[in-house]
Amino acid sequence: MTPFTYARAQDRDEALRLGQGRTTAYLGGGTNLVDLIRETVATPDTLVDVTGLSNAIKETEGGGLIIGAAARNTALAEHRIVRARYPMLARAILAGASAQIRNMATVGGNLLQRTRCTYFYDTAGSHCNKRVPGSGCDAIGGFDRGHAILGASPDCVATHPSDMCVALAALDAIVHVEGTGGARTIPFTAFHRLPGDRPEQDTLLEPGELITAIELPPLSFGQTSTYRKVRDRASYAFALVSVAAALEVEDGRVTDVRIALGGVAHKPWRATKAEAALRGGPATAAAFRAAAVAELGDAKALRDNGFKIELVNRTLVAVLSDLAPVVDHGDRNGAAA
């Protein structure tokens, strides 16, 4: 482990001042960052503890929420407004990690967790462009069962590990950040990057910028939402595939819908093609499957992960069918539970 110094920021201004070092890292719950340091994937010379920043979860005038970046994942999942208005978010958080980790992990830190690709963590013998730019990607042609089927590049096929972020992408969340240049907001769907030829850059954050809050806009049909995670074992496993969805149906037709996918790309994947295919159409299993097929038209399987394409199809049909008030289930085609 590389030696480092530790400083605890008392407020936002002090955090920003302390965070301007070349290899400084902000420390929230540490549930991922400490692992990265232990494995020498991350080698900061200074850790700035920002757990003293705002952890408040407040309702906005319009009926949305502002969530302080230091709020713990457990507190967010248990919040009465989240459970009532955004159940997909509560369920996504509860699907992630263990209770002990959720008690420690912060909302801001969750956004910044890094891929769990085996090759990314193997500093002793694996090539990884995300860890060492320009070194290659041993996942391509290697053990790729859990890797991306959407948005990958010749330089990286890793997937984003967060459950919470999939729900936030579906909910059109907004990320509030501050740096020496002032405050700005970033739409959640733009916050994380696809790998392209710079897979080492996970987000649009500039050096020294600090996440201060996450904003959830109001969603009139957010109560009719859920999150489903398909994984190799029932607990403490990352998603092979996950779906966050909210559905509004009137007179048997889809009036509005939000869908995001996890376990399939370098970032939480907003399923805009599926949404467009569904809006205005019938709320039937056949329509749900057609929407899934439309979304996955550009999916590219690696050697061992082709099963994810059909798994997304079946999971998405199952989730939307469960959310719709009346659905012809005749062609769910063994949709994943």
Highlighted features:
single chain; 337 residues; alpha+beta; five-stranded antiparallel beta sheet; four-stranded antiparallel beta sheet; 13 helices; 12 strands; 28% helix; globular
Could you please describe the fold and organization of this structure?
By secondary structure, the protein is α+β, with helices and mostly antiparallel strands. Helices cover 28% and strands 20% of the residues. It has 13 helices and twelve strands. It has helices at 12-18, 33-38, 73-78, 80-85, 87-94, 99-104, 107-111, 118-121, 164-170, 188-191, 272-278, 285-295, 307-323, and strands at 5-8, 24-27, 46-49, 57-59, 65-68, 174-179, 182-187, 210-216, 225-230, 241-250, 253-262, 269-270. The strands form three sheets. The chain has a five-stranded antiparallel beta sheet. It has a four-stranded antiparallel beta sheet with strand order 9-10-11-12. Helix 5 runs antiparallel to helix 9 (164-170), helix 11 runs antiparallel to helix 12 (285-295) and helix 12 packs antiparallel against helix 13. The protein is globular, with a radius of gyration of 20 Å. The relative contact order is 0.12. The model has no long low-confidence stretch (mean pLDDT 95).
